Amino acid sequence: MGAVKSKRVPRAVREQQMLDAAVRTFARRGYRAASMDEIAEAAGVSKPLVYLYLNSKDELFTAVIRRERAALVAAVTAAVEPDAPADRQLWSGLKGFFAHTAEHPDGWAVLHQQARTHGEPFALEVAAMRAEIVEFVTDLIGAAAKEAGCAGELADREVAGLAHAMVGAAESLAEWSNSSEGEGAYGEREHSSAKDTAATLMNLAWAGLGRMTDGERWAPGG
Amino acid sequence: MGAVKSKRVPRAVREQQMLDAAVRTFARRGYRAASMDEIAEAAGVSKPLVYLYLNSKDELFTAVIRRERAALVAAVTAAVEPDAPADRQLWSGLKGFFAHTAEHPDGWAVLHQQARTHGEPFALEVAAMRAEIVEFVTDLIGAAAKEAGCAGELADREVAGLAHAMVGAAESLAEWSNSSEGEGAYGEREHSSAKDTAATLMNLAWAGLGRMTDGERWAPGG
Amino acid sequence: MGAVKSKRVPRAVREQQMLDAAVRTFARRGYRAASMDEIAEAAGVSKPLVYLYLNSKDELFTAVIRRERAALVAAVTAAVEPDAPADRQLWSGLKGFFAHTAEHPDGWAVLHQQARTHGEPFALEVAAMRAEIVEFVTDLIGAAAKEAGCAGELADREVAGLAHAMVGAAESLAEWSNSSEGEGAYGEREHSSAKDTAATLMNLAWAGLGRMTDGERWAPGG
Amino acid sequence: MGAVKSKRVPRAVREQQMLDAAVRTFARRGYRAASMDEIAEAAGVSKPLVYLYLNSKDELFTAVIRRERAALVAAVTAAVEPDAPADRQLWSGLKGFFAHTAEHPDGWAVLHQQARTHGEPFALEVAAMRAEIVEFVTDLIGAAAKEAGCAGELADREVAGLAHAMVGAAESLAEWSNSSEGEGAYGEREHSSAKDTAATLMNLAWAGLGRMTDGERWAPGG
DNA sequence: CATGAATGAGATTTCATTCAT
DNA sequence: AATGAATGAAATCTCATTCAT
């Protein structure tokens, strides 16, 4: 089952095959070390065809980044429950995030490790995505403050810092949870893993966020 | 008659000059895009001399990683107050971490972005360093639990997750606080910035850690 | 309902369209730099069709050269008054030459610059055309000698040299007069320009030719 | 005698060897068809060394054009007798021109055929050289007019046309005389050939120039 | 201690050309 | 009559690395 080598495939399909191959290759080798030869071979086509459709290594990499970025944002967006309370929204968003990164480790690797490391044009694309996510978290923190009656003030920079910390923590957990994958039935395992990981982060951070919106602060001697 | 170009410099000194140049170049260009030509020129020596002392591009990069890793670990280690309570130790360690990464942005960029992106041998070196730090944080969480009387149980995997989240949050904050550097007198500013950033993270996480050691957990329904 | 893109065009017409596109492209880009892609697009057809009709880039270029060569020779031939005296024939031939090269600059560029520059097969085609023209001029010089009573002897090699000089002068003037085109009504302008340019060359050379057929020679000391 | 393969040669020497090889290769193959591989092999070095010294194919070609241009201009300049009468200056300049192009056919081919055919930057370099020579001839025609008492007027454009015709005739003769090279002792042959060729052109043109400065013109009816 | 001279191997990219429909 | 899909071969250029001095 499955043709050994599919020939004369429509352009749109071939392009996706190429992007698939490119994601795998860029994730494993890095942008510079991945050669167009290797990508073409992984896609099952000749190098000139890759150039005919994607124009250059740069454009290919950009196309990959854009596709993976859109997929990740879509996954998280689809996961959040828009009208739920702030903590519930954060929780469902995190679950979506961890589930997607677990299911698409190569895409996540390209976004998180490769794209940020190889020059402005690519880094900017990812920075924009990260900014989107940071803003989402920032808004949730604001909403949480409102829900809590907001006894104390939360300076803008303070909120921004908290959001960046949250996002960084999530990124780190995604990597850790992917690399320390246990055994067990796959689908099940991943699902529960995404849930557990999201819970870990909620446990760590939610109480602190609540205290801050109440105007309390940690202090060295405290 | 000061020599315009210092010749006949002792080996140890030359090596450090080369490593300095290499850190800068690797940080700015990335591992693959940084050429030995550029590094040699930045170091003010000829290429064969770089090879005589550091043997190959791989070994040069490894030497850079090792030096920067040692410097970062030393900075954090020197910053913590060994016999203080757990929160105080974490706090001082974070201050040390943020101060060092702010003062050595190129070294941090090499460790955080380049080394993890370019293949196993280098990534392992950084993973080891990260493991050191994660373990340090893990121990602190354990100590905090003990100090708190430890009503509930903290599963190992749970603690590990918390530690990874803390480290990821710290990394993200380091990057954010470096790139959003404000104005003001420099030395002063950086110091206070490291303090603020550390406080942000303590505020976010310490309360949650405390609740967990008390056996409480966040749950979707509030 | 005029078709936006004419399809099902008879072969002969399509071939001329392709040759038109090829002349333009070869003239502007040069033989090597002109790609079959570009030519096919300029002709408004697909690449395989160009191959179906013209077989290969070499054959396409050859076809172009042959067509332009024939057109130029036809224009000059049509311009000369066969039974007029030698100087009159030369004069009208030159007018025809300058008028044609001015009206078909791309064709002239291909013949004069590209075809001679890119290897034997093409250069030979143009060399043959040039030989035709040189022979025509050679014959005219012979005729002029006869008309003049031919006091002196004109060695064959001497005549050949004169003919080559005339042709080279004409080629140079064609280029110069095309590139230094003035203003004024176009058709008129070109015509008069061809006439002026022909007159310039007649003025320069005819007296000398007459002297030579009279057996006189220029000598260093005057 | 003659090392089979000279190694470790100083840069200046190697560069000339490379330029020598490049002139030959560009002349025979044309700019595009000449590969850097071929040039490097003809120079007896590896390709990277060519790039190290000459940077790119474009720059290599430019260097070739500049060197050959300077050599040709120097040869002609050295040949003319500055204080002689106009016809004598023209005569000696032509001799120098024909002698140089005969001795350096590849250089001449690069300047005359290749450089003008492959894009603006190169064509401009040769156009500038040609303009130098045309101006020299223009001045000589002006001087001749003065010497002759200059009964009639010579319009600027008329003079320019004459100069361009002269230069074109010389170029054509150079090519013809090179390609129709007879047998016989080499050095001798070439010398006499340059002289003969120069004489041919003087015979053709000098009388006409004289008539024009006297105000006479050729007219169709004779 | 230090370097100018040199190269093997491999990267990206382009192009003329064909096949299947 | 006409084309979208596909490729083998070769071009320019770069880089880590070594020798001879």
UniProtKB/TrEMBL annotation, chains A, B, C, D:
An example Gene Ontology molecular-function term: transcription cis-regulatory region binding
Keyword Transcription: yes
Species per Swiss-Prot/TrEMBL record: Streptomyces chattanoogensis
Organism domain of life: Bacteria
GO biological process terms on file: negative regulation of DNA-templated transcription
Lineage: Bacteria, Bacillati, Actinomycetota, Actinomycetes, Kitasatosporales
Protein name: TetR family transcriptional regulator
DNA-binding residues (ranges): 35-54
Alphabetical list of InterPro entries matching this protein: DesT_TetR_C, Homeodomain-like_sf, HTH-type_TetR-like_transc_reg, HTH_TetR
Keywords: DNA-binding, Transcription, Transcription regulation
A Pfam family of this chain: TetR_C_46
Residue ranges of domain HTH tetR-type in the record: 12-72
PANTHER family noted in UniProt: HTH-TYPE TRANSCRIPTIONAL REGULATOR RUTR, POSSIBLE TRANSCRIPTIONAL REGULATORY PROTEIN (PROBABLY TETR-FAMILY)
